[in-house]
Write a structure and sequence with these properties.
By secondary structure, the chain is an alpha/beta fold. The protein has eight helices and seven strands. A seven-stranded mixed sheet has the order 3-2-1-4-6-7-5, with helices on both faces. Helix 6 runs antiparallel to helix 7. Bound molecules: uridine 5'-triphosphate. Uridine 5'-triphosphate binds next to helix 2, helix 3 and helix 5.
Length: 220
């Protein structure tokens, strides 16, 4: 199966052991699947972007800085894995090419204007992934931001059309957060990507692939 996994930058905020645990699980998964991993920039990217803004950089410049950090994180994970290509592709075409020689490919961002949420959805579309796994810091998709409203309802399942509506209605509020951004929700919808959003601990990645019901399944 061709799988695209979106891995938030928070993974790289722990020590080497944390990254080693992800690397082991991803090596294991890529023994039986063609695996593409897109990693985020996390705190390091936010720090660099904040500093660059203070120095007068515009938003596109900040995006380039963020992309550079995601690629450093990608390198760290790729170097920790046995099955991954060591070169970090900068485009989807390169990623697809590399996947012909390697069981796993790890990459970061591509071009300015969005986050790795959208990058990973576009990659999933480009490589015709059968499964798009979105490993995030919360345990699924909620009706509202659960950190702001404790009564928010968690969805076990949601259709991609309803996801687009949900994200569009909440993304207008400042600080609102629905784990998936509008662009990736739209890509999931148009490509009918089977998507699972879940809390991205290493053991959860294995559980999701075994079919255990955790997180939220986005149905085409
Ligand atoms: P992230 O995907 O880590 O952004 O990319 P984020 O939303 O802050 O991360 P999470 O979801 O909380 O972990 C870091 C930054 O890199 C730039 C953007 O500026 C983004 O905020 N970026 C990333 C791009 O411009 N294009 C890309 O394809 C990827």
């Amino acid at each position: 199966m061709r799988i695209v996994l979106s891995l938030g930058g928070s993974v790289f905020e722990g020590d080497a052991n944390r990254i080693r645990n992800y690397a082991k699980v991803l090596d294991q998964i890529s023994e039986e699947n063609k695996l593409f991993v897109v990693v985020g920039g996390g705190k390091l990217a936010r720090e660099f972007i904040k500093k660059a803004r203070e120095l007068g950089a515009n938003e596109t410049m900040c995006d380039y800085l963020g992309i550079a950090v995601t690629r450093i994180n990608a390198m760290l994970l790729a170097f920790a894995m046995k099955n991954s290509a060591k070169r970090i592709p900068e485009t989807f075409i390169e990623a697809e090419e590399l996947s012909k020689s390697y069981k796993a490919v790890v990459m970061g961002g591509t071009f300015p204007g969005h986050t790795t949420d959208a990058t990973s959805a576009l990659l999933a579309e480009f490589v015709n992934a059968e499964l798009f796994l979105n490993a995030t810091s919360v345990d699924g998709i909620y009706s509202e931001d659960p950190r702001r409203n404790p009564n928010a309802k968690k969805f076990d399942k949601i259709t991609s059309a309803d996801l687009v509506k949900l994200v569009a209605s909440t993304s207008m509020e400042a600080g609102a957060n629905v784990v998936i951004d509008l662009l990736s929700a739209k890509i999931i919808e148009r490509s009918k990507l089977k998507t699972i959003v879940f809390k991205g601990e290493p053991e959860n990645i294995i559980k999701v692939l075994k079919g255990e019901k955790i997180g939220t399944v986005v149905e085409p």
